[in-house]
Amino acid sequence: MKHTSHQPSQSSDWYEHAFDLARGIAAYTQSPLLEGVAKVIAQHPEAHIANAFNHKQIACKVWARDTLLNVAGSSYAKVAILGGWYGILGAMLLEDARFNVAAVDSFDIDPDVETVAQTLNFAFPEKFRAVTADMYAIDYTALGADLIINTSCEHIADLRAWLDRIPAGTRVLLQSNDYFSEPTHINCVASVEDFKKQAALSTVEFAGALPTKKYTRFMVIGKV
């Protein structure tokens, strides 16, 4: 039998409890990202923030962030994140004291995620920008990013054709996976070697794999 000092109300709203939990953890950790999560829960109850912040999603982003730091350093004038969704990776870079990131542009084709991403990154109003845009319609030369991140390359039919739109010499961080059974994954790869061949970067600074329960995620960092 479970014993609690306060019996839960059967009619209480789950979102109220989630908000209180996130706000309390944010106060304890002093994390702007976690405070942003609390604000998203309160202001955007329709957002799938639990899915975006699940342990597998976060593990892959932590892997990307920490490997980037070790391989390519900490200072970036502008980071562009394609398929940025709710802006979690941008927030992880901006709140990490090890990094010196002047600006993050988070692009996503779904207009419904823009305001959620801005709410999540409320603590960085001068540095974070959420933009609704098709990744194929972006003028990457005019954008002037010194780092471009795409962690959803399994959704790109022709990865190299997209990379050809990016100015030569630009550093990129790319992730894909071997989760072939997911219908929306139209261009999975079987190994990190296959991913390297698919990307065909001029310089490869890192190539590795991160096994998970259902699939393996692959990552390549280098220059176009």
What tags apply to this protein structure?
224 residues; alpha/beta; 7-stranded mixed β-sheet; two-stranded parallel sheet; 9 helices; 37% helix; 21% strand; disordered N terminus
What does this protein structure show overall?
By secondary structure, the protein is an alpha/beta fold. The protein has nine helices and nine strands. The strands form two sheets. The chain has a seven-stranded mixed beta sheet, sandwiched between helices. Helix 6 (114-120) links the parallel strand 4 (104-108) and strand 5 (128-132). Helix 1 packs antiparallel against helix 2. The radius of gyration is 19 Å and the shape is globular. The termini are far apart. Residues 1-11 have low confidence and may be disordered.
